[in-house]
Amino acid sequence: MGVRLMVVDDHRLLAEALASALKLRGHRVLAAAAPVAGAADLVISRAPEVCLLGTAAPADPGIFDPVVKIKRERPQVAVLVLGPVPSPRGIAAAFAAGASGYVRHDERIEGVERAIMKARAGEAAVAPQLLQGAFGELLNPAVQPDDEGQRLLRMLTPREVEVLVRVAEGEDTRLIAAGMGIAPSTARTHVQRVLMKLGVGSRLEAAALAARTGLLDRAGPVRGTAPSEE
């Protein structure tokens, strides 16, 4: 028995092609709509059994807001997300919004149809390969890009990090020089280099930036780690 469907995708040709393929397999396609942003109201008004919702960026904030709206107004509608290979966060976001499953854009029509039947039956519809990939990434996460504090920390030498810590603690040039065993002129040069590397114009700005990015927490104990210099 065919399923009452709606296909929604920002790419109209893709939506229409998928709708045509599903019609040939005996399903009743109520509409092939685009774009996704305005489709929730149409889905709510037509109330299909299953809605296929396309997305090109499953990790973007708010991308699954239409799913939330559909499930709030028509909880009986099963929503299947069509998208690229997702990250674990993308899959989690889709299900958190209320989706019944996730299907890759390049899935064969037989796979899409199986997912549709599962969704209509109230089952979760996710290809085993996607789950394996998601679990694999969760168990062996890729190294994430360093945050701003770490990036800034790498720009400074150990001696400059110590200078920044002392600046953040309110020490003036004389105290910095005395505490580090260097000449005041050398301390002043270090301070200027720190300001230049951080892209700020004053010691106050440098201290504020270091605090905001967590740079000082990452710096750890740095005093006394470098030899005295003149």
TrEMBL record:
Gene3D superfamilies: 3.40.50.2300. Residues 149-214 form the HTH luxR-type domain. It holds the Pfam family GerE. One of its GO terms (molecular function) is DNA binding. Residues 4-120 form the Response regulatory domain. InterPro entries: CheY-like_superfamily, Sig_transdc_resp-reg_C-effctor, Sig_transdc_resp-reg_receiver, Tscrpt_reg_LuxR_C. SUPFAM superfamilies: C-terminal effector domain of the bipartite response regulators (SSF46894), CheY-like (SSF52172). Keywords: DNA-binding, Transcription, Transcription regulation. This is DNA-binding response regulator.
